[in-house]
Specification:
3 helices, about 150 residues, single chain, mainly alpha
Length: about 150
């Protein structure tokens, strides 16, 4: 009798397990079909929004790069303007004394001749500024000649 109930219970549990397995497979197939249906239905919409978000992302990246370039240009422009003002303020405060400037002796003679010639106009500050521009033009001409550009 014990064997009979054990076999009956075993068969009942096997049938019950098969039934719930079949019910699980049926439910899984049903929900898989629903999922596939909605995936096919909404896939173009999802791809459209993905494309829009990608476009917005790249537009913001470009905007950030443009802002960085503009700020970099303003930084360079500010540095150039500050350098020019610094140079002219030092040139305008020049009193004709070269005790705190040191030039190599080979250049000092040329500087004295050009500064003396331009100083004969009576405008010592303007003479020094003109002398600096003459030296810059001379240096540019030497670089052009040395570079092979005539």
């Amino acid at each position: 009798m014990y064997e009979f109930f054990r076999t009956l219970l075993n068969n009942f549990l096997t049938v019950l397990s098969g039934f719930f397995g079949w019910l699980g497979d049926l439910t899984e197939g049903f929900f898989e079909g629903i999922k596939n249906f909605f995936a096919v239905l909404f896939e173009p919409l999802i791809l459209f929004f993905k494309g829009i978000f990608y476009l917005l992302d790249k537009c913001f990246d470009i905007a950030v790069l443009v802002v960085q370039v503009v700020f970099g240009l303003f930084k360079v422009l500010g540095s150039v303007v500050a350098g020019v003002f610094n140079t002219f303020s030092q040139l305008l405060s020049y009193q004709g004394s070269s005790s705190y400037y040191s030039m190599p002796s080979a250049y000092q003679g040329g500087w004295d001749v050009v500064a003396g010639f331009l100083n004969s106009t009576g405008f010592s500050t303007i003479a020094v500024i003109m002398c600096v521009f003459i030296w810059l033009i001379t240096a540019y001409a030497v670089i052009k000649i040395a570079g092979g550009e005539r």
